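Exercise: predict the fold of this chain.
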Amino acid sequence: MNNELLEALNILEKEKDISKETLLEAIENSLITACKNHFGKSDNIKVDINRTTCEFHVYAEKTVVEEVEDPVLEISVENAKMINSKYEVGDCVNIEVKSKEFGRIATQNAKNVILQKIREEERKVLFDQYYEKERDVVTGIVQRYVGRNISINLGKVDAVLSENEQVKGEVFQPTERIKLYILEVKSTSKGPKILVSRTHPELVKRLFESEVTEVKDGIVEIKSISREAGSRTKIAVWSNDPDVDPVGACVGINGARVNAIVNELRGEKIDIINWSDNSAMLIENALSPAKVISVIADAEEKTAKVVVPDYQLSLAIGKEGQNARLAAKLTGFKIDIKSETQAREAGDFMDYENDYEEYDEFEEDGLMEPDGYEEDPEDYEENDGYEGASEDYEETDGYVGASEDYEEADGYEEETQGEEGIDPEEGYGYEFEDLQEEGLEDE
């Protein structure tokens, strides 16, 4: 009997993860309960169980008296001396109680006590096991649809995927394996109740931790995340190691890492951007893939004004405003997006295009400021009024800029001397002809 009990305890400990000590305590309580049912009282009952061999004995402590008034708690002197002649009035005698003497009801009650304790411990173990996994990702097997909810088997316990936590459009088949995020674990009389989700943003974060070693080790941090389940997710990443590219680490070789997560999320798009402590740069990155011209961010008010090229406005806003909405959630800023034309009309953005083109030209020439023209002051002075006379320069086919000294250009004088239709105020040939007629050529 003792060997069978020991073997049963070992099996229970292994399968249900219930300690042997807990089971032995349950047996002690069951024996005490059986004695109470059999004798009516259990205050004087003691149970002695050997933890190694599982050998147990039940004793009833009785006081030696001259006349017995309560046979459960007292024993006469004569009966006590029959056990041992040294007992006197007032001594305590331990009388062993045989479990075989218990009636059917007492035995059934003892059995129920043991089973109840096993169930309680089993529920407690399961609760502790899954409570540790709260806010983590687990793999479950789809069992069946219960109304609009889905019953998911997590191994030793079932979880409920409610309608609110399901991604719209996702349909699962029985026995299908899916990843789930544990929202909450509740303890109930029927065991732990586990609520899981497929829409929570933390699901994406945990999947990156499982797929990307750098994220799991803390080299790459996911600073912020915003998600519209089933459609698109944006995450901002930061590297604590300057030699590690956070975006490249999350994408993986040929996109292997991020594609594994996209497949698990049934094709949901994921945008990975670099995190920046500079609010303007962070907002610019968050609006990708749209290009941004300028960002004016107010850190105190948590507002930002963004200007984008006219052809990038729809891309920056996204379908039904999704891109701008996710960027706002990711950065925590209220973002106002305007096109370049709208910004100019509103007065928020002036002459950007010209300034930008000038800056590009100067940068290409190696000059950071328009004052670079002053690098050759002599030429600049000789061509006095060059910039202002650009129209005349074009009309005269390079005349104004090409003649350093008109008086030395003799060929030009002869060529223009006989031309017709030259304006007397602008044509130098006309003035030279007058000088010849007046006989002043020599002078």
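Check your answer against the key: The chain is about 40% helix and 25% strand.
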